[in-house]
Amino acid sequence: MPEPRPSVGRIVHYVSYGTPGGEYPSVCRAAVITEVPEHLTAEPFDGCPNGTDGQWIAGLAVLNPEGFFFNRGCAYSEEQRGGTWHWPERV
Ligand SMILES: [Zn+2]
Protein backbone atom coordinates (compact mmCIF):
# COMPACT_ATOMS: atom_id res chain seq x y z
CA MET A 1 0.00 0.00 0.00
CA PRO A 2 1.53 3.35 -0.95
CA GLU A 3 2.35 5.83 1.78
CA PRO A 4 -0.07 8.75 2.00
CA ARG A 5 1.00 12.19 0.85
CA PRO A 6 2.15 14.39 3.69
CA SER A 7 -0.18 17.31 4.34
CA VAL A 8 -0.31 20.21 6.75
CA GLY A 9 -1.59 19.29 10.18
CA ARG A 10 -0.76 15.60 10.08
CA ILE A 11 1.23 14.04 12.90
CA VAL A 12 4.45 12.26 11.98
CA HIS A 13 7.64 11.20 13.74
CA TYR A 14 10.77 13.34 13.70
CA VAL A 15 14.06 11.60 14.58
CA SER A 16 16.15 13.62 17.00
CA TYR A 17 19.91 13.80 16.69
CA GLY A 18 21.61 11.84 19.42
CA THR A 19 24.87 13.07 20.91
CA PRO A 20 28.01 11.73 19.18
CA GLY A 21 29.17 9.96 22.33
CA GLY A 22 25.83 8.25 22.76
CA GLU A 23 24.89 9.96 26.04
CA TYR A 24 21.59 10.81 24.38
CA PRO A 25 20.33 8.35 21.80
CA SER A 26 18.48 9.34 18.65
CA VAL A 27 14.75 8.96 19.35
CA CYS A 28 11.39 9.47 17.64
CA ARG A 29 9.47 12.62 18.59
CA ALA A 30 5.94 13.59 17.64
CA ALA A 31 5.80 16.37 15.06
CA VAL A 32 3.06 18.27 13.25
CA ILE A 33 3.57 19.04 9.56
CA THR A 34 3.57 22.83 9.12
CA GLU A 35 4.26 23.05 5.39
CA VAL A 36 4.73 20.82 2.38
CA PRO A 37 6.86 22.72 -0.16
CA GLU A 38 6.08 22.49 -3.87
CA HIS A 39 9.57 21.47 -4.84
CA LEU A 40 12.47 19.46 -3.49
CA THR A 41 15.55 21.46 -2.63
CA ALA A 42 18.38 18.91 -2.49
CA GLU A 43 20.13 16.66 -4.95
CA PRO A 44 19.49 14.38 -6.71
CA PHE A 45 16.00 15.86 -7.21
CA ASP A 46 16.67 19.57 -6.62
CA GLY A 47 13.83 21.53 -8.24
CA CYS A 48 11.66 18.48 -8.93
CA PRO A 49 8.12 18.34 -7.54
CA ASN A 50 8.01 17.37 -3.89
CA GLY A 51 7.35 13.62 -3.65
CA THR A 52 9.40 12.73 -6.72
CA ASP A 53 10.57 9.13 -6.38
CA GLY A 54 9.15 9.00 -2.86
CA GLN A 55 11.35 11.87 -1.65
CA TRP A 56 9.28 14.23 0.45
CA ILE A 57 10.35 17.27 2.38
CA ALA A 58 8.19 18.91 5.00
CA GLY A 59 8.31 21.67 7.59
CA LEU A 60 7.74 20.33 11.08
CA ALA A 61 6.80 21.62 14.52
CA VAL A 62 8.60 19.08 16.68
CA LEU A 63 7.10 18.36 20.09
CA ASN A 64 10.01 17.59 22.38
CA PRO A 65 9.28 16.91 26.04
CA GLU A 66 11.34 20.06 26.80
CA GLY A 67 9.60 22.25 24.26
CA PHE A 68 8.79 22.95 20.64
CA PHE A 69 11.19 23.53 17.88
CA PHE A 70 10.54 24.33 14.25
CA ASN A 71 12.37 22.85 11.35
CA ARG A 72 11.92 23.37 7.60
CA GLY A 73 12.86 21.13 4.72
CA CYS A 74 13.09 17.88 6.71
CA ALA A 75 13.61 14.88 4.45
CA TYR A 76 11.48 11.76 4.65
CA SER A 77 13.45 8.62 5.52
CA GLU A 78 12.34 5.17 6.56
CA GLU A 79 15.82 4.55 7.90
CA GLN A 80 15.15 6.81 10.88
CA ARG A 81 18.29 8.91 10.57
CA GLY A 82 18.61 11.98 12.79
CA GLY A 83 16.88 15.03 11.33
CA THR A 84 14.44 13.09 9.14
CA TRP A 85 10.76 12.28 9.47
CA HIS A 86 8.64 9.16 8.90
CA TRP A 87 5.09 7.99 9.39
CA PRO A 88 4.25 6.63 12.84
CA GLU A 89 4.17 2.86 13.04
CA ARG A 90 0.80 1.51 12.08
CA VAL A 91 -1.00 -1.01 14.25
ZN1 LIG B 1 9.22 6.70 14.70
Task: For this entry, give a set of tags.
91 residues; globular
Rounded to an integer, what's the Rg over CA atoms? Answer: 13 Å
Overall residue-averaged pLDDT value:
93
For the largest beta sheet, what order do the strands appear in spatially?
Answer: 4-3-2-1-5
The bound ligands are: zinc ion
Strand content: 35-45%
Number of DSSP helices? 0
Silhouette: globular
Main sheet makeup: 5 strands, antiparallel
- Count of distinct structural domains: 1
How many beta strands in the DSSP annotation? Answer: 5
What is the structural class? mainly beta
Task: Give the termini separation.
Answer: 14 Å
SSE arrangement, N to C: EEEEE
Question: For this entry, what is the oligomeric state of its chains?
Answer: single chain
Characterization of the model:
The protein is mainly beta. It has one domain. Helices cover 0% and strands 35% of the residues. It has no helices and 5 strands. The chain is globular and about 40 Å long. The two termini are 14 Å apart.
Layout of secondary structure:
Elements: E1 11-15, E2 28-35, E3 57-64, E4 67-75, E5 85-86
Antiparallel strand pairs: 1-2, 1-5, 2-3, 3-4
Summarize the structure.
The chain is mainly β and 91 residues long. Helices cover 0% and strands 35% of the residues.
